[in-house]
Amino acid sequence: xxxxxxxxxxxxxxxxxxxxxxxxxxxxxxxxxxxxxxxxxxxxxxxxxxxxxxxxxxxxxxxxxxxxxxxxxxxxxxxxxxxxxxxxxxxxxxxxxxxxxxxxxxxxxxxxxxxxxxxxx
Length: 121
Known about the structure:
The chain is an alpha+beta fold. The protein has helices at 13-22, 79-90; strands at 2-8, 29-35, 65-74, 99-104. The chain contains 2 helices and 4 strands; from the N terminus they run βαββαβ.
């Protein structure tokens, strides 16, 4: 089992969810997060009013950029399919497209039935 964690633009959560649903992956978690990559946050890319605590004070930079963290648990054989779908929806070839992390998932437990492992995913 794997956990796929994608950091994406906020406006791409809906299209990402739709693409994953079309592939049969209906379960995911999406969380609003703040962060920045190597580019140190480009304020002109954000289409919203920025609170002062987000602005870094240096020209065009930001302390943090609003993003969404999407987490989905999949079987090992589904990783490439899910990663490809996330890339297809989110790739604009511009700075800030995001990152995808694939992590080994040691165990999963469905709380309602106490199923474990692959059947809980």
